[in-house]
Design brief:
The complex is a heterodimer of chains A (392) and B (233). Chain A is α+β, with helices and mostly antiparallel strands and 392 residues long. In chain A, 52% of the residues lie in helices and 17% in strands. Chain A folds into two domains: 174 residues, no CATH class; 178 residues, no CATH class. Chain A contains 13 helices and eleven strands. In chain A, the strands form two sheets. Chain A has a six-stranded mixed barrel with strand order 3-4-8-5-7-6. Chain A has a two-stranded antiparallel ribbon with strand order 2-9. In chain A, β3 and β4 form a beta hairpin. The model of chain A has no long low-confidence stretch (mean pLDDT 90). Helices cover 29% and strands 26% of the residues of chain B. In chain B, strands 6-7-8-3-9-10 form a six-stranded mixed sheet, sandwiched between helices. In chain B, strands 2-1-4-5 form a four-stranded antiparallel sheet, covered by helices on one side. In chain B, a hairpin with a 6-residue loop joins β1 and β2. Chain B starts with a strand and ends in an 8-residue tail after the last strand. Classes of the chains: A alpha+beta (392), B alpha/beta (233). The interface between A and B is medium-sized, with 26 and 30 residues. Chain A: It is found in: Cell membrane. Chain A: Keywords: Cell membrane, Membrane, Transmembrane, Transmembrane helix, Transport.
């Protein structure tokens, strides 16, 4: 028997056997699909958590960052001396260093007066250190005293800011943040995170007016832009040598990883979604195992007959594994489609960046494939009960 | 060389005090093209003998040379390989319900390395035509009568041109006419191909097809005679 026959013939036998019992096949596909959707959802939520948690950092247009070494996440920063932003300018490769101020305050909805916590982001809005969509249109207006730009992708509980702005025909929308009255002069797009449901962008002077208890001499993060063509790793090393130990010098990917690590390790959220994925896989494996096991048990005489007429255990095992792989494929396809639709619906409801990605699709396919293979390997043990001698 | 040569075959089930011998010092030879009927009361050891000759069980004591292969001490792989050269017909047809008649018969050829798919199906079709089922190639076993299913089983047993066919009560579940038709076809095809047949039966209606009738009791062969009517023509 050729290698192709060794694979194809058991696969064909498996397909014929599965196809013969359509109700059983449908329930097996539904089981795999269920596991598939469960895993897609868990991994999707997990990725959305990390993507949303790092959306602010990802939108920063800088190559190197300074943060306090004890800062665990951007929504809860430890202050570092603002003077470090001036010190880094000593390196000729450094083009610009922008201090960024982060704080949380209370937003009162302009519609019904309800209060919600909002993330404040203060920086020199004309420095070009942030790539928030829409920022360039409101940067000049943000220089006005007590003005702010509202994050259009904040949760709807913050109020219908955009329609209210449009209704005002270009005039600012007065709102209350903390104990101060601010004018919302426009909108930007950042997106909510697990740490903040909404964002408000301010020029650094307005930030300090709003949060006067924060000394001007301290900042939360410094975004450093380098001259084009600079060696980022070399500049990072130079900055580490230049600056005291009260700052950590990170590249952009390192800062994103720093933020992710907090959510992955310092909170139970990463573990919960990982555990949820595992549960989905286990439930799926049990379903596929039961289907395959009962299939073998119901066809034990046929398997024993095949053994009697000269089929080895290898051929029959490959047939059972083929059944598992067929179920994996047939369950994955509708599972992936259903998950993509659910991502869309849930993404719109939660404003989380949920979406199907090729990477995740391949990961889940691999997991479902592995799950079915494990179920097949477990079910294969039942083949031992097929004794050809019992046929006489 | 005879297709089957047994010498001093002894076989027991269980162990210790529960050990029970079902075959005691059995010696038997089946010649090429010979049709041997194995009879005897339940528990006489016929079926165990059939499973040992069919390489479905490992030998314990004695020697069994089947189609030139010594089964004493043979590995599992060697026994599987030998089974591909033996045709099996079971009391229940044991066809795969999710396959058509021709697919069932072709399954007996899938273990053959050299035969391409088209040839396997052509052989299956030819064999099914030989047992009178040319019109039923694509029917599933569930769409066939009991006699037709057993004829498919005969076709499956013979399609790979085995040197030996082992059959266990092939007519037990059939009415008289169907039973006679099945054994008649089995006999004719076996004779034309020079295949030895060892057939366990309690059915007196088919004694006339045998060249020899071997009777067993308590694990021993007690007689081996030509049937009164003589071998079938």
């Amino acid at each position: 028997m050729t290698l192709a026959d060794r694979i194809f013939l058991p696969l064909r036998l498996a397909w014929r056997q599965l196809r013969a019992e359509k109700a059983r096949l449908a329930s097996a596909i539904a089981g795999v699909m269920f596991a598939c959707v469960l895993v897609f959802m868990q991994l999707g939520f997990r990725a959305a958590l990390f993507d949303s948690a790092t959306s602010l950092i990802s939108a920063m247009r800088a190559e190197v960052f300074l943060i306090h070494p004890l800062t665990m996440a951007s929504f809860r920063p430890e202050p570092l001396p603002r003077a470090r932003a001036g010190q880094v300018l000593a390196l000729p490769e450094v083009m610009q260093a922008t201090p960024v101020y982060l704080a949380q305050s209370t937003w009162r909805s302009p519609e019904d007066g309800s209060r919600r916590t909002i993330q404040l982001i203060g920086f020199d809005v004309e420095a070009g250190a942030m790539a928030f969509t829409g920022l360039e249109h409101v940067a000049a207006a943000l220089k006005q005293p007590d003005s702010a730009a509202f994050d259009l992708r904040s949760r709807p509980e913050f109020g219908p800011v955009q329609p209210m702005l449009e209704a005002l025909g270009g005039r600012p929308l007065p709102v209350q943040v903390g104990n101060r009255r601010l004018d919302v002069v426009g909108t930007v797009e950042i997106g909510p995170s697990f740490g903040a449901d909404g964002n408000l962008v301010l020029n650094e002077t307005n930030f300090h007016r709003l949060v006067p208890e924060r000394p001007f001499s301290n900042t939360d993060l410094v975004a450093i832009r380098l001259q084009p063509g600079s060696d980022i790793a070399a500049v990072q090393a130079q900055l580490r040598a230049l600056l005291p130990q009260d700052v950590a010098v990170l590249t952009h990917p390192e800062l994103v990883a720093w933020e992710r690590r907090y959510w992955e390790t310092a909170t139970p959220i990463g573990f919960i979604f990982g555990f949820g994925s595992l549960m989905g896989l286990i439930v799926g494996m049990v379903i596929v195992y039961q289907i395959l096991f009962s299939d073998i048990a119901n066809h034990l005489r046929e398997y024993a007959t095949l053994k009697a007429i000269g089929y080895g255990n290898g051929y029959l095992s490959r047939s059972v594994l083929s059944s598992a792989f067929i179920l994996a494929l047939l369950g994955f396809i509708p599972g992936a489609v259903a998950s993509a639709l659910l991502y869309d619906v849930i993404g719109q409801a939660t404003f989380l960046p949920l979406g199907m990605t090729l990477d995740r699709g391949l990961t889940v396919f691999g997991l479902i494939f592995g799950m079915c293979a494990a179920a097949g390997l477990l079910a294969m043990r039942k083949l031992r009960d097929a004794d050809p001698a019992d046929m006489f | 060389m005879h297709p089957v040569t047994l010498e001093g075959v002894t076989y027991s089930y269980g162990s210790g005090e529960l050990r029970r011998a079902v075959l005691r010092d059995v010696s038997l030879t089946v010649a090429e093209g010979e049709i041997v009927l194995l009879t005897g009361p339940s528990g006489s050891g016929k079926t165990t003998l059939l499973t040992l000759i069919g390489a479905l069980r490992a030998m314990q004591q004695g020697s069994a040379r089947v189609l030139g292969r010594e089964l004493q001490g043979a590995s599992e792989a060697a026994r599987v390989a030998l089974r591909r050269r033996i045709g099996f017909i079971f009391q229940a047809h044991n066809l795969l319900g999710f396959l058509s008649a021709r697919q069932n018969v072709a399954m007996a050829l899938e273990t053959e390395a050299k035969l391409p798919e088209r040839q396997r199906l052509a052989e299956a079709d030819r064999m099914l035509a030989a047992v009178g089922l040319a019109e039923h190639l694509h029917k599933a076993p569930g769409q066939l009568s009991g006699g037709q299913r057993q004829r498919v089983a005969v076709a499956r047993a013979l399609v790979a041109s085995p040197g030996l066919v082992l059959a266990d009560e092939p007519t037990a579940a059939l009415d008289k006419a169907s039973g006679q038709e099945v054994v008649r076809q089995l006999r004719d095809l076996a004779r034309s191909r020079g295949v030895a047949i060892l057939l366990v039966t309690h059915d007196p209606r088919i004694l006339d097809i045998a060249d020899r009738v071997v009777s067993m009791e308590d694990g021993r062969i007690v007689s081996a005679n030509r049937p009164a009517e003589g071998p079938a023509a």
